[in-house]
Amino acid sequence: MIEYKAKNGATQFKPELGVDIDEADFEDNKGWCVACGEVADGCEPDATRYECEGCGARKVYGLAELALMGLVA
Description:
Number of helices: 1
Shape: globular
Strand order of the largest sheet: 4-3-5
Helix content: under 10%
């Protein structure tokens, strides 16, 4: 996970895949919480604002949605 500052100044996280986004597995049903960095299972690739089991924030996004938002390293 890579830590970054959001426009509002909050510290957030984005996943670091280690592969090119074109080679990423969009079907593994993983999501990432941008608030705390926790990985969530059972998320559709286009998931938006799912609730994080770790921190409770509604900031879990699927891989495809994160890629569209430019939040994949």
